[in-house]
Amino acid sequence: MNLSSGRFVSLPSSYVDRVDGNTTQFRSSFKKCLGSRYSLRVIDQPAFEAQPLGRWRAWRNRRFSGLVHYLWEMAIESGAIGGSTKKGKLFGSFGEQSVICFPANTIFNERFIHIGRNTMIGPDCTLSAGMVPGQQCLSDRIVTIGNRCLIGKGTGIVGHFSIEIGDDVWTGHNVYITDQNHGYEDISRPISVQTMPEKSVRIGNGSWLGYGTVVLPGADIGEHVVIGANSVVTGTIPSFSVAVGSPAKVVRRYVNGAWEPVVSKATGRSSDSC
User: What pTM, to 2 d.p., does this model score?
Assistant: First the structure.
């Protein structure tokens, strides 16, 4: 390697292997980024750490890695929203032992949102009532979340009219629940300013919504229902059933003391068969 310029960058071999795994290819990419003024020197990890810069980086990582994690854990604990916190007191009701984990995403018009007891709402979740902050809603209960619920990370609950989530409802990550949608019929106006009539949403006690489930206006999910991952619920799902797909369709039901596949009238085959 040409070091005639006297200007080179030293990197540990472990870094090169982690980034590319091919030293020759990495040298080529390095040259394209920094040109010929600098050369790359790849040395093994012990030799790298023996250099002043390498020793400083190793010391810094050992010293501050634990501190960063400690501070982050403090932020998580201190930033959580509970019923006794300043933010928690803005809600219509906030049950005992319930928590909204830090960091939260968008939360507004809290006084129209009610959370039961022993409920955990994961980090990065959105809770909103109405179109914009400060809006006067039509009802005191736009969003209601029951007791002992677990709302997965990244979930969005966007209420404009009425969203009712029963007791003991659990969701996977990145679930989206809303009672409002956009219209598109008027081609002279942007879709973003066209609205459709809101339709209430209900999720019954003891139900489970898998990862990425989308619950749209008018959805009525019964008790003890499983919604499969990435399903889209648009209508009624009866109690004691399993539904999957887009739109979600019932594939299994609890009948006469046993879970039975639902037989399609069109094909004569069970809906959950391959």
Answer: 0.75
